[in-house]
From TrEMBL, chain A:
Transmembrane segments: none
Provenance organism: Edaphosphingomonas laterariae
Protein's recorded name: DUF35 domain-containing protein
Residues of the signal peptide: none
Chain ranges of the ChsH2 rubredoxin-like zinc ribbon domain: 33-66
ChsH2 C-terminal OB-fold domain ranges (all copies): 71-132
Segments of this protein annotated with the region Disordered: 1-22
Pfam families given in the database record: OB_ChsH2_C (PF01796), zf-ChsH2 (PF12172)
Entry-linked InterPro entries: ChsH2_C, ChsH2_Znr, NA-bd_OB-fold, Thioester_dehydratase-like
Organism superkingdom: Bacteria
From TrEMBL, chain B:
Domain Thiolase C-terminal: 261-374
Protein name, entry field: Acetyl-CoA acetyltransferase
InterPro entries in UniProt: Thiolase, Thiolase-like, Thiolase_C_2
Gene3D superfamilies hit by this protein: 3.40.47.10
Keyword terms, alphabetized: Transferase
Gene Ontology molecular function terms on file: acetyl-CoA C-acyltransferase activity
One Pfam family matching this protein: Thiolase_C_1
Amino acid sequence: MTGAAMKEGAVSDVNPNPNRPDPIMTVDGAPFWRAANEGRFVAQKCGGCGRLWHPPRPICPECRSKDRQEQPLSGRGTVISWVMPIHPPAFGFDQPPVVALVEVEEGLRFVTNVENVAPQDMRFGMKVEVAFATTRGGHKIPVFHPAKEG
Amino acid sequence: MVDRNSQAAIVGIGQTEFSRNSGRSEQQLMAEAVLAALDDAGIDPKDVDGCLTFDLDHSDEVDLMRNLGCREIKYTLRTPQGGASSVTTLVHAKKAVESGFCDVMVVWRAMNERSAYRFGQPNLQIQPNGKSSTFIEWCMAYGAQTPAVWEALSCGPYMNRYGVTSEDLGRIAVLLRQNAATNPNAWFYGKPITLEDHQNSKWIVAPWLHLLDCCQESDGGVALVITRMDRARDTKSRPARILGAEYAFLNNHEIISDYYEGDLTDLEVSRRVTERLTKAAGISPRETNVAMIYDNFTPQILRQTEGFGFCGRGEAKDYIRDGHMDLDGRTPLSPNGGLMGEAYIHGMNNITEGVRQLRGLAANQVKNVETVFCASGVAGAILGL
């Protein structure tokens, strides 16, 4: 992990949702969550052909390699969809979260949250950058904040 | 294409009452619905040799046989993908009886959904597994915990691109509730809504889904009996032939949480089904007389109306506003009131309504019905006399 990645992923001082559920981790998904817990936002990279995949999977559909590696992502992306669950309230959230679908520069899409933004300022096509939120069990998971520039 | 004598037909439909608390087991709902369907067909339970339900159904094949007295089953199947399974069951039932795999197939869905587990509430017991739920791993920690949230997130790009307004969605809810209001079998019988009611109903998922954009939650059981036309000659009720039934499942696409592949404003899966279905049935969904389209949430009606070729992309909101899916329109939408108005038995009560429309016995009977289209996103079927 690079120092820059850690800095990029610094946790916000104010956690709007300290009771956020911990991630559910499957055997095949766990590497993504473990990297996040160390402050790294990564995709699965195929050791055979170099393609990136999300959600993670044990076998590359392009070359059938089982060699799973990690690729750090730039953390920059675009909101391609967003919603706010109001009723029933999302379990573990004291404030209704902005749930978003973010497409990152590398072309992969992630279900995530956009934080540090007022709902009325949410826009399709909004530029965002990765940050990390803390769950009730102390895990760090990737979320996004509005991009500081551009 | 099979000849008419060997073609599959729905010869029996059955159901329990639709409620918010059935007061009895799902096993009992299953047995009551299947027996009602067999009685409707005039077929002895001892002749049942195939059975099919959803992988999410809690009732059991062993119990089905024990309650009904079936002797020997030659074929059983459970279909994945939640409510998308509803029309998928017809795809398998048709092929099973036409191939001779079995002769009399019963299809059922029985659930105490409203009183026992409510799909609309965050479910903390749900685990990523083979019951179409692996996506949960990527959603739960972000507060995407209910079907309404998953659906709204996947519909957003469509809504945004085509400028669909909440009023556009509201017109769908008003239409379905208007149909339910004159269907004594519907939970919302006698309870139509106005566009104002829709607009004033609480937010479920901002900025797309108000309460009245979401289907209700229900307890109940629904069943079908399917056999070949040569055997259908002896049945009590008029057979509804399954002219075509097709299904598609596309790489990197999920069902309700369809986020990861391609242009999210398009419903490619429905277009693929339409191509094959039109070829198999000899007519297209648009040429049928009644459209029973899975209405878990109002945006689904827009996307499927386009996906199954009733109108062009981005045109569904205007197609509906112009009355083409009204009871007296070109292709009436769910005259029973759909899942929003009649009951949410995971789509199966939309199929029984299709059969009633063909028999000419529906509460809101459309005139001169010769063909009915049934759809649940990934699957489509055309029924005919």
